[in-house]
Amino acid sequence: MTLLTHNMLSSNIKGVTNGFPLHIEAEKVVEKQVEINHDFRRNIFPKIKWKAFVDASRILGYVELPEEAPEPSVLESDHEFLGKFHHALLELHIEEGALFCPETERKFPINKGIPNMLLRYNLQEVFAFLILL
Amino acid sequence: MSSRPELQAPPEIFYDDTEARKYTSSSRIVEIQAKLSERAVELLALPDDGVPRLLLDIGCGSGLSGETLTENGHQWIGLDISQSMLDIALEREVEGDLILGDMGQGLGLRPGVIDGAISISAIQWLCNADKSSHEPRLRLKAFFGSLYKCLARGARAAFQVYPENLAQRELILSYAMRAGFAGGVVVDFPHSTKKRKEYIVLTCGPPSISTAVPKGKGEEGESCSDDESSGDEENQTVSISDRHRPRKKQKTNKKGKGREWILRKKEQMRRKGNTVPPDTKYTGRKRKARF
């Protein structure tokens, strides 16, 4: 799973108001080479929640990104930054580990790079569901 | 037993290892899936500026439809409920990111981040109640509600579906409309039983000219009447005396059936979406006697 997907995912448990960002617990991280596409990054940059993105990259052990979100104009000129942004966004993959809902601490395991977001209808979740109805 | 997979088992059980294997070994399935997803991407009507978008593939399965998205240069996130199908996708080393999830439980994505969504032959699964906790109406509501939230304004969703009957199509559409979508059904090749394909095309946002539903392939203005209305008309005209009508009324004289008949038949096949050679001056022309 890439950090791009992590940045888009939020907890879909019923009754959770702020399910973003999911906490990461990474056991195994792999790097995969991905071709750089400038247009895509320009398109995706405004949609990224920067703080969650930087925090996630730190957890994976990548500390090159700045704490504060840079101006969009940097995307045009700063090639060094572009490379780092691209690397963190698409080339770092969480292979094994888990995600945690920030409110309920519900665990979503990641196996072979695929997060398991299935909600088993356990008692607590059904209860939250019924209250909403 | 019915040939509809929806009636045999829940998706996470029906798409087991053997069923999933078909999606790599059968070239027929691969070809059909590629064609369907190609058409779905066309219906998304993304601006033609070469900028890659972030798309969602709902029920991505083995990633066959995702490959079409990659070929078109887009980044995608795939969601599926079957672990076996996702394992095949890993084996095929698809470009997109995969998520194991149930669309009926809501998508769980941040609002307004996705530029478009496709789904190939998956939405009709929502109408099934495979577990005691499943209630199709709630699942449809959760799915379309969360989809509407995560799509950007003006973004489109194109879902190829195999509805079991009219009521099911109505049910799916009504929940999409209730969630706030504008759009409708596009039917490709409405006259053919085999090639007929239905797509639900939805636009996120209020109705406008840009949200008009595109036309289906192989369909003409006058002939796009709904099957139900034409079926009703037929029912009205059928009478008992028709039973005793001789089977073949076609008259064949010495000259054969004639050019007009051939042209009519060719037009019929064309409407069904079959490949038919073009009409030329040679069509239906008699051979010379010495041949």
From TrEMBL, chain A:
| MF-aspect GO terms | protein heterodimerization activity
Q: Which InterPro entries match?
A: Trm112 (IPR039127), Trm112-like (IPR005651)
- Where is the signal peptide, in residue numbers? none
Gene Ontology biological process terms from the UniProt entry? rRNA (guanine-N7)-methylation; tRNA methylation
Which SUPFAM superfamilies does the record match to this protein? Trm112p-like (SSF158997)
Q: Give the superkingdom in one word.
A: Eukaryota
Subunit structure comment from the entry: Interacts with TRM9.
Family, as annotated: Belongs to the TRM112 family.
Official protein name in the record = Multifunctional methyltransferase subunit TRM112-like protein
Q: Which organism is it from?
A: Rubroshorea leprosula
Automatic annotation (TrEMBL), chain B:
18S rRNA (guanine(1575)-N(7))-methyltransferase Bud23 C-terminal domain sequence ranges: 202-289
Question: Where are the residues of the annotated region Disordered?
Answer: 211-291
Cite the GO molecular-function annotations of the record.
rRNA (guanine) methyltransferase activity
Q: Where in the cell is it found?
A: Cytoplasm; Nucleus
Q: What is its main location?
A: cytoplasm
- The residue range of the signal peptide is none
One cellular component term from this protein's GO annotations in UniProt: nucleolus
Regions of compositional bias (Acidic residues) in chain numbering: 221-235
What's the protein name? Answer: 18S rRNA (Guanine-N(7))-methyltransferase
